[in-house]
Design a protein that fits this description.
Strand content: 15-25%
Radius of gyration: 30 Å
Number of helices: 16
Largest sheet: 7 strands, mixed
CATH topology of the largest domain: GROEL, domain 1
Shape: globular
Distance between the termini: 24 Å
CATH class of the largest domain: Mainly Alpha
CATH architecture of the largest domain: Orthogonal Bundle
CATH superfamily of the largest domain: GroEL-like equatorial domain
Structural class: alpha+beta
């Protein structure tokens, strides 16, 4: 008599499992869906997305990474694609949409190979070979520039802004950006160091984007603490303090017993004397402007006002660091250690009404290593989108200076890559050849999308581009406004090499990672502790 074998359950009840081709199909579908979302935003003729969150807050943007972050994506594979955009944003600042579209296309082409029964590891190997070759081709194509080549830097900045909210004023803005980046750049041991955070963007609704200006110093969204203080100070000597100018309260609860009214008065006088001492320490250094990271007591405010010292309290830590770089001051952690040598300098510190709020301008600093761009715009959404465009553009200029290499845009680089990678594929034997070919074809998604977004026929455009490249015109790209082929380099469509290499690398790495997944096991939301023993025949995870 045969004994019935009881199934063994090794995964908790409710665990979902997806294996083999099914898992791959699902993952590829999710990645393609993410790429499809941002695809329509690519290029000068790309459209914008309006994202409304549960609170009803609105974001109108063309920026790939912003769209994906605001969308709160659930699918685990889709989240991996969002990571590509984030990395691109952190590394270069621009090209997020390109990176995501490339990943989506690489997976789409890989799916066709998987349907032909080519093993995922073969596709992965081919993709990696193609990526290495593509980077090699890009390095050879790239043109070297120096940080003194302002014209090329301005063109790269303008290219980054085209198709975004700030496009209408891109000529003026790109000049401001190049000036700002060059101002904060530091040369240490022959190496150029630039910190993106040293360029502060202060947004203010009102006026138009055209009214945006660069301040050789810092703009604070703060006003002076006392109305009796001067509204402006010329030839400012600036003290930066990050300790409170208040009487310290005890750490533990303490009781002070006062038995006589005179004692009360003595207690108040004592507090006042302590504050007067603190104020005197600032006065002794010769400072006429005090910027404090913490609070300033009301009595101390009164003393400062009487002495004609301009004081601001609760300045953000990040602004204190920028102020130190701009004015040359040292941040004092307590008043005891504050000396005349710690003071910074600015030609003018003044409080000005911008729009409907008071702001403090610290300007005319000597060779500041931190500057501010005061960004204006008609409405909050306009200013926010212009800020994203500026951030991207600053990243692009920094990337151009740091790597010293640029390529032309408008789809010219991708078409050249596709052509050269096809030749490379022909030199290979074995099934990897098909994967390299698929990789080459994936490159064409960028010019194809540019053409589609401009309402052009992508097949006609790609055919024209290829024939132009085959005649040896390396920088032939699409002029999306006329629909014709143009020399992208001559037309000033320039991008840093880093945009292309970073997008290629991260798109390839993530797509190969996704291709290698053949089993997705999603845990149930139930008990994470013990594994409940399920009765035989229950719909579980039999093994």
């Amino acid at each position: 008599m045969s004994k019935e074998v009881q199934p063994i359950y090794i995964l908790p009840e409710g665990t979902k499992r997806n294996t083999g081709r099914n898992a791959q199909r699902n993952n590829i579908m999710a990645a393609k869906a993410v790429a499809e979302v941002v695809r329509s935003t690519l290029g000068p003729k790309g459209m914008d997305k309006m994202l409304v969150d549960s609170m009803g807050d609105i974001v109108v943007t063309n920026d790939g990474v912003t769209i994906l972050e605001e969308m709160s994506i659930e699918h685990p594979t889709a989240k991996m694609i969002v990571e590509i955009a984030k990395t691109q944003e952190n590394e270069v600042g621009d090209g997020t949409t390109t990176a995501v579209i490339l990943a989506g296309e690489l997976l789409k082409r890989a799916e066709e190979l998987l349907d032909m029964d080519i093993h995922p590891t073969v596709v992965v190997k081919g993709y990696r070979q193609a990526m290495d070759k593509a980077r090699e081709i890009l390095e050879k194509m790239a043109i070297e520039i120096s940080e003194t080549d302002e014209e090329t830097l301005i063109k790269a900045s303008q290219t980054s802004m085209t198709g975004k909210g700030a496009e209408s004023s891109r000529e003026k803005l790109s000049k401001l950006i190049v000036t700002a980046v060059k101002q904060v750049a530091e040369n240490k041991d022959g190496k150029i160091l630039i910190d993106h955070d040293d360029i502060k963007i202060e947004k203010k609704v009102g006026e138009s984007i055209e009214e945006t200006e660069i301040i050789q110093g810092i703009v604070l969204d703060k006003e002076r603490v006392h109305s009796g203080m001067p509204e402006s100070v010329k030839e400012a000597k600036i003290a930066l303090v990050d300790s409170p100018i208040e009487v310290k309260s005890t750490e533990t609860d303490a009781k002070i017993q006062i038995t006589d009214p005179n004692q009360m008065q003595a207690f108040i006088d004592m507090e006042e004397k302590m504050l007067r001492n603190m104020v005197d320490k600032v006065i002794k250094t010769g400072a006429n402007v005090l910027l404090c990271q913490k609070g300033i007591d009301e009595i101390a405010q009164h003393f400062f006002a009487k002495e004609g010292i301009f004081a601001i309290r609760r300045v953000k830590k990040s602004d204190m660091e920028r102020l130190a770089k701009a004015t040359g001051a040292k941040v004092a952690s307590n008043l005891e250690s504050l000396t005349e040598n710690d003071l910074g300098y600015a030609k003018l510190v003044e409080e000005t009404k911008v729009g409907d709020e008071e702001m403090t301008f610290i300007k005319g600093c000597k060779n500041p290593k931190a500057v501010t761009i005061l960004l204006r715009g008609g409405t909050e959404h306009v200013v926010d989108e212009a800020e994203r465009a500026l951030e991207d553009s600053i990243g692009v200029v920094i990337s151009c200076i740091k790597s010293g290499k640029v390529v032309a845009g408008a789809g010219s680089t991708e078409i050249e890559l596709a052509i050269q990678l096809r030749r490379f594929a022909e030199s290979l034997s074995g099934r990897e050849q098909l994967a390299v070919k698929a990789f080459a074809e994936s490159m064409e998604i960028i010019p194809r999308t540019l053409a589609e977004n401009a309402g052009l026929d992508p097949i006609d455009v790609l055919t024209e581009l290829k024939s132009s490249h085959n005649k040896g015109n390396l920088w032939s790209g699409i002029n999306v406004f006329s629909g014709k082929v143009m020399d992208a380099w001559k037309e000033g469509v320039i991008e840093p090499l880093k945009i292309k290499t970073q997008a290629l690398t991260s798109a390839t790495e993530v797509s190969t990672m996704i291709l290698r997944i053949d089993d997705v096991i999603a845990a149930s939301g139930g008990d994470k502790g013990g594994m409940p023993q399920m009765p035989p025949g229950a719909d579980g995870m039999g093994m």
